[in-house]
Amino acid sequence: MGAGSSTGGKKGELLETMADHEESINCMCLSEDGSMLVTGSEDATARMWSTKTEETECLGVLRGHSSYINCVGTHDTFVITGSADSTIRKWDMTTCECLFVYEGHTSRIQKILITEDFIFSSSFDKAARAWLFDTSEIQDGNEEEACIRTFKGHGKGVYPLIFIPANEEFEDESDGPKINPGDILLTGSADMTARSWSFESGGCLKQFRGHTGAITTMATDSTGRVLFTAGADSSVKSWNIQSGQCLKNMDGHSNAVICLLVVNRLMYTGSADGTAKCWVTEFGDNTRQYKGHKGSVINMRFKGGILWTACGDSIARAYDAKSGGLKRSFVGHEAAVNCLVITESKLYTGSSDGTLRVWDAKDVSEDLMVDDGPPPPIPIEQEESTADEATAEPVVEAEDEPAEESEVVEEVQDIEDEGEADEPAEEKTEEDAEAENPAEEAAEDVKEVEEEMEELEREMAAQG
């Protein structure tokens, strides 16, 4: 199993520090076109920032919530915020005007998820709800009509949300938002279970039982057929969404799993044990470990072959996802880094110290071809250089593994022989509300993951 070094890596260059928020920054997201960043804070405000200008500018402040903001999202020209005051607010990002207040939850909002026609929310009040995004037809005094479904059944607070639209749309010629019979909502809860719900009826379809602690993070595979859950009991589990059957139990972390990210056939997990790990989803094997954190790994992003982590030790880090090597440490915050967003050239981090910091990230991916060891010989001719690049492979140290690993190698070989390119997931998760990645990144990520699968095959073959 590859393991990233806890030393090495350059120090990231700090470009700007924005101290406009009065308290901790809890969450952030990019607008759909990537031109604006939204931050939500403990000070009960959200702020909008320019990302395309040379210097980051505050474009507006969204004031109205009476308690801290837990989650933010954008759609079209609107900003959506969820707060501990138990309400969700919809804002016009051009005027900073609050257009609608969604009321119905009785405790703090944990997560929001935004689709074309709906807003889904989870709350500490043990329920999830679905709301109309377009509230223009709702008359004053009838605001409760905005809530079209309430999903009740969990015994404790509800945290992560995933929406899986039906594969085939139901033919409905009526105007307005459409709910298809096969639309499914997935929820995870502090009651140690996850549930699937029919969006059409609001009824519970399946319960996923097996965890011994709160479920705080979830994801699905690219097909929308397999659910991954993790949380306080330090384990990660995979489930057949249709049958509710537990497929695999992935142990390896020694403390709560805080964040989980699936990129095609690989899964990345961040934990309170101070590590991030990479897993092959088909087999449940832990193949990489990203070391060096001195606190909980709170948030993660994957972009351009780089795994970016936000940590409770006040540092954000960039790792080569394939080798596990630490490439950058972004040092400067004075408290935990709670959230991060990456654009083409910049890294944005939000911290409990109340600051938004902007870092130079444009050269991190370029360092992927740089080996941490001695420099390679200088090529004599271009032709030889090209040949070397075509045949050279990264060297990964092998560790002793059980004999059964040979069976896994054969299955990995089968996957590679199929030659099927993974498609990006169709389902929406709460991560879509917090960070919208440009569509063109999908092809790059698929290429990166396929290269890593080839590397894993070689590594496993060496072990076997």
What do you see in this structure?
- The chain has 464 residues and is mainly β.
- Helices cover 11% and strands 42% of the residues.
- It is built from 4 helices and 35 strands.
- It has helices at 382-391, 405-418, 430-434, 441-463, and strands at 2-3, 10-11, 14-18, 25-30, 36-41, 46-50, 58-62, 69-75, 78-83, 88-92, 98-102, 109-114, 118-123, 127-132, 147-152, 158-164, 184-189, 193-198, 204-209, 215-220, 226-231, 236-240, 246-250, 257-263, 266-271, 276-280, 285-290, 297-303, 306-311, 315-320, 326-331, 337-342, 346-351, 356-360, 428-429.
- The chain has a 5-stranded mixed sheet, with helices on one face. A 5-stranded mixed sheet has the order 2-31-30-29-28, with no helix packed on it.
- A hairpin with a 4-residue loop joins β26 and β27.
- α2 (405-418) runs antiparallel to α4 (441-463).
- The protein is globular.
Shape: globular
Distance between the termini: 13 Å
For the residues shown, what is the average pLDDT? 83
Provide the structure class: mainly beta
Largest sheet entry: 5 strands, mixed
Low-confidence stretches: 1-7, 369-427, 431-443
Strand content: 35-45%
Helix content: 10-25%
SSE diagram, text form:
Elements: E1 2-3, E2 10-11, E3 14-18, E4 25-30, E5 36-41, E6 46-50, E7 58-62, E8 69-75, E9 78-83, E10 88-92, E11 98-102, E12 109-114, E13 118-123, E14 127-132, E15 147-152, E16 158-164, E17 184-189, E18 193-198, E19 204-209, E20 215-220, E21 226-231, E22 236-240, E23 246-250, E24 257-263, E25 266-271, E26 276-280, E27 285-290, E28 297-303, E29 306-311, E30 315-320, E31 326-331, E32 337-342, E33 346-351, E34 356-360, H1 382-391, H2 405-418, E35 428-429, H3 430-434, H4 441-463
Parallel strand pairs: 1-27, 2-31
Antiparallel strand pairs: 3-34, 4-5, 5-6, 6-7, 8-9, 9-10, 10-11, 12-13, 13-14, 14-15, 16-17, 16-35, 17-18, 18-19, 20-21, 21-22, 22-23, 24-25, 25-26, 26-27, 28-29, 29-30, 30-31, 32-33, 33-34
Helix pairs in contact: 2-4
